[in-house]
Amino acid sequence: MERLFDPIKATEDIVDSYLSYLRTTFDFSDRALRDQLNTLMNQKDKFYKGPILEATPPFENGATIRELVEEGVLSKGFLQFSTENLDLDRPLYRHQEESIRKIVTLNRNVIVATGTGSGKTEAFLIPILDSLLKEAEKNTLCPGVRALLLYPMNALANDQMKRMRSLLANCRNITFGIYTGETLEENKKAEEKFRKTHNSLSPLQNELLSREKMRQTPPNILITNYAMLEYLLLRPDDNVFFDGDYAKFWRFLILDEAHTYSGAKGIETSMLIRRLKQRVCSSETSPLKCVATSATIGGSRDADTLKSIARFGSDLFGEVFCWKEGVPEHQDVVLGYRRNLATEESWGMPEDNVYEELSLELDNSKEPDTSRLLAMLSKAGVPNQIIESSKKNSKDWRVFLYNVFKGDSRVIKLRLLLEKVPKEISEVASEIFTGDSDQKRKLVSMVALANKLKHSTEDLALLHARYHLFIKTLEGGYVSFYPEKKLFLEKHNGVIVDSEEYPAFECAVCQNCGQLYLVGYIVEEKLKQDVAEIPGDKHSLQFYLVVDGGFADYSIAEDELESEESAFAPEDEYLLCVKCGSIQKRDLLGNKCNCGKDYTIQLIKAKSTSDEVHKCPKCGTSNSLFSVVRRLVLGDESATSVLTTSLYRHSQEMEMEVVPVVDDDWDTYTEVPSPLRSTRRLLAFSDSRQDAAFFSTYLSDSYSQILRRRLIVDVFSANYQRIVKDGWSINDLAECVLTYVDQLGFFSQEKSRTERKKQCWYWILYEFLARSGRNSLEGLGIVGYSFRIPDQWKPPKRLREMGLSDQEITDIYRELLDSFRIYGAIEFPEGVRPTDEFFEPRNYHYSFKLCGRKHHANSWLPSRDYLSNRRLDYLAKIFLKLGIQNHESEARNLLRKIWESDLFKDPPSAWRGVFVDSIENAVGTVHRARYEYWELAMGIGDNPNAFYRCPKCGKLTLRCVHDICPSYKCDGKLKKINPQEEMKDNHYRNLYMSIEPKLMEVAEHTAQLTSQNAAEKQDRFYRGEINVLSCSTTFELGIDVGQLETILMRNMPPTPANYIQRAGRAGRRSDSTAFSLTYAKRRSHDLFYFKDPMKMVSGVIKPPKFEIKNLKIILRHMNSVAIAAFWKENPEYFGSCESFFFNQKCSGTDAFKEFLLKKPDRILCALRTVVPQELHQKLGVDNWSWLDKLMSNTDGSLAIATEKIEKDIEALEVNMQESSRCKEFATAKKMQETIKTLMDRQIIGYLSQNNVIPKYGFPVDVIELQTYHYPQGKTIELSRDMKIALSEYAPESQVIADGYVWTSRYIKRRQGKEFPKNRFVICNRCGYFASSLEERSEKELPEACPVCGEQYNYVGSYITPEFGMIGDSPVKPSAKKPTKTFSSRYYFSSKINGDPQSNTSHENIGGLDLSISSSEGTLAVINNAGGKGFSVCRNCGFALVGKDEKLEKHSDPLGKKCKGLFDRRIVLGYEFLTDILEISFDDYCNETDASLWYSLLYGILEGISSTLEIDRTDINGVFRYKPNYLPTLVLFDSVPGGAGHVRRVVHERRLGEILLETLRIVENCDCGKENEGKASCYGCLRNYSNQFFHEILDRSKVIGFLQPYLGTRAKLIERIKE
Fold this sequence. Notes:
This protein is of the alpha/beta class.
């Protein structure tokens, strides 16, 4: 029986599991806080919302392909297609037919704006094939591109190729190929790559695999991306696609995922398309038919939206797209038509239990008994005439039941309810099943049944539905103590009582004992929460243990110390007034406040490092990797791992394709099914590729641990009686676990029995050694370990005389000897290494000696008189209870006696054979216990062992002597418990006891993988071999993932469009309902949408927009047209900077200038075609004045680029010659290598980087972290934009990819090349930044800050690592996220002197004096490693952070010893040009309210976006001060090289209008209305990219600033009307 996905049960279990995880993780020992936490957890809608039910009705059907062929619309050539590839008799959707008719018959351009899974590809592919088939019928089909399919991502292009191979396998006269950066040059190598990627299959004859082959005979269908199209249009070798005999047949241009082409990207792509059309569309050929597709191009169907979409198409393609109401032949936006089932005539409704009964019947059998179905329907009250009429023309049970239930009034009502918007399931259920106590479950059964019923086998369901569930993270925990102790789970600064505010403090809890901590920092003698007033003002958090009662001894047991220091010293004791927040050292005289001692609580400051506490002073728990004290904040990985595990448990097994049995005498393969194997599939989305990569390993490791423990528990349960009767040791357990997992087929076949047993030992020892603390099987009371006392031993007489019974003495010995186990001082089984990383962080071989702690040898007795340990403390507490005088000294004496006179006395001894002795260097003789002496004690089963628990520290133990808790310094009293009852709500115990033992194969799918690796993983996921795919945005757009029903989003997507795309991956081929689970992280963007998730599920999606009025972008494309024509005639100038600027024949700049001065007609004709008509005069197309902006000796872009490289080379040559004359040959060689570096730069990259030709889409600013020199690195390609790479790939930064952590270790050098060094200066007072090539810096850099006159705070040299970085040997990741060395920082460098378009003015707007300046400027990105700089080897590039001391020996990337010298304090940097706008507020010098200026900055950016209709992501800004603390907003274009956006503010003189729009936006927002508008939200100032500033953005400050100048809202409306 197939297990049906139940959204109600799934939601209940997911929520219960999540809340159970929260309770278990933050388990306060303080009962009042624990009860309050439970109460808050149980509040409705506090942590989850949903599920929300969304109906996705089936699309209306249209004609079949065969019918269109018979009608004469399509070619008869379609009849050759097999039904497997293209079913000729399956009805197309109505929108597919409409698109085909518009393109083929009406010759229209179209935009296919239908939803996800709507078959958009067929809407354009069938017309393309029709055109090619008709050519073939005329025998005119020859090499040459007919259709160009343009995709925004290689993953989408690769996915389309899979469809092409399937579709065109039998149409070998139609050729196709993909040309991207991954396409190899040589055909032989390309074929080898194909066979390797596709399991040795041979490629189709009609698929062209290589660049070489495609240049010889261009394919009929060419697939590429926009970046590669730029290259194709420029490179001389690729002219064959656009010019000559093979370039006369272009017919179609397809843009998939068209919604991505908005803003500056839209402008760039539109100009690219115009250039393409100019090349391929001559007067002799027909214009291209243009098709754009998108599932999220606009959410509304009103006429204005549809006209906007058509206008977008016209702007993008430069062709006619229109939408005229009432004129179908002039409606070029094709929409998806959903069926309106509500129009069906109702026959009434059946008994409400029939839905669940029928669903279960259908789940139990793929071919249910028809007679049973008839009986069930009749019993449920379905009229006989309905049953009889439904049976007619019903070819199977699905159609029959479809016909019955399409008239069910409940189904019709449900469709009506969901027709417009999704709704909460509880709301829908109450309307459909009014008054029913089980209404939600009945609704789910009805939806599940309707989802199975189809009008035909290919059709969508009667009611196709999707569920959406949202889970929220913890936002933190805050506690107030006055007037009562109260816990809050949202941000609270305090509580107000009788108009007085009393402070609240952020709290944390020990993971082991539940001890309460307060978190914050001391400011002006008050304990403050962690809130930075200014972004970047980061304080170091401190943790304060709240003392219960008086100050106690919170020193740490010596066993737990890494040094001889205690965890706290007397000076760490504090007193806190909970009424006013005053805090002071305990030993200070007097009080800091006048509130009185009644309001004072006692605190102990715990040692913390980087906001983490690694030892709890209360219980002594330590962990060197992770903090043992946690704020009430969740790690995103741990929380989403819990959610994924729970969701995975409810996912269905995927139906696998049955492989046909071949009658083969030599068929020796027999598949052995494993009950552990699973074909469940789940897609987990993350916005960041690093988040996705890390989560794949984190989830795999955490789930593997859960599964291991579950398998061990299975062995416990199956062998319970034997364990109890025979007294199993862990040796017995290991044998039985191995037998069990072998039966399940857990291990791969290549592992030998020895290897498999060793692996089982690792699992068991990890539990035995208590490595997981209270979350281990022992810590959860599932199993305990009791030391087996030798038979020859008898209790010492001295202890009997103290009043202890023999059993109590035995238990004391067992407790003392358990130290050997707890501290890892055991003799490990053969083959198991105690140093293995599996046992981290305590992966050492520990031991014990009598006295003296050294290395990893623990001391049985405290090594100093003033120290103690858990053994001494335990005995001392027992002696105190017995009333023994001098109990501590007596306990110490007894501890020595036990060691010397009993455990290790000379033979004969009862303990002979229990311990293993060894002599170790620098330590002496040490002792370890044999693991065989511990027996298992069961905490499960019908008659579990007695367990005892300390209510104070939570310690769980098998032994109880006078109720004494064995925890160090704990004075709690043990209580006997039944773990099965006491811990029934523990998240981990329930998981280990109940989870279904199924394997989970997890993999990463991000842009970090090679195309081959990504394709293999996608294929394995498709086949069910990978269960969970952790992906970034690579799977968001249109990639086919086959049968999939569950989606997890690990953060709230940036926009509703992103959400719809991600949620749309599920439920496309399944009979079950799709389920999307979204986790809201602890950031304002996520929390905003969690408050009202409907804004995400069915939020407003605006049509993309842009205007082709950006002169700067257009000029770069004009330059590109000209230089492409030049290279076509003069290919010798193409290639490197040397071949262009320093060509032996002639300077490329001069040759190009001479070429253009002839004013070639072909270029003029091209520009007249490419440049919009209305801009010809402004850009000087006809009079060739545009050449001045390219060639002018003063400000022409090419002239500036030429001068820059020539001056750099000249300066280097002068210095090289000078160094040679001074016999500084090493320096001269470095200069020579630097010259070669500059010379060998690719000319396209250099020209685009310097804004001569289009920059967008070129990988000129991308660098690589090289990994291919290691076997694990051959499947990944790590590359990032330079601005990001300076931080992510900086030396010592860590990156995780495909299951390994890579540490950046080398700045890559190339033989014979040297990095150019740039000297730079920074003034912290005003933010001034400037740089110059080091050889010219003395002349060009001023000695003091030219803005404020101060001396520089930082002077240094940076290099741009343009060759990339090299990774060190990879390691397996731990549970801790990889780190970056330091973040890079942006600086506004300077304006470009002599910028002809610069504009400076002064304006007075309503009395507000402003200085405004627009120009081209430089932004710099700097990573100086937190001021430490990097030390870089001059020979091999080996690099470290700081390291001013003697540098360690090192090897080069190939492993050879390197003796190179180091350059120290090197900084990584990069500069780029863009357009800037500076707005200075002349009357506000010395105004330092950061909240005001950042709020105003982001308000004005919103105003610019709205007023000028600029995509908000295309502009950004920073805030800085000018001299005299003159506040200045620096706005800039986000697009590299600038796009002219911010310049328009000045050029169009619209600043006043923008400020009015800014005021309108903030005044019309309702956020914070209960607090006078002191807030911000996504409706006013916040956006996805400015989350760093969300806490200080305040719309009320923008209103208060602008209103005095611009007036009230009424005046504002009047001004806007004017």
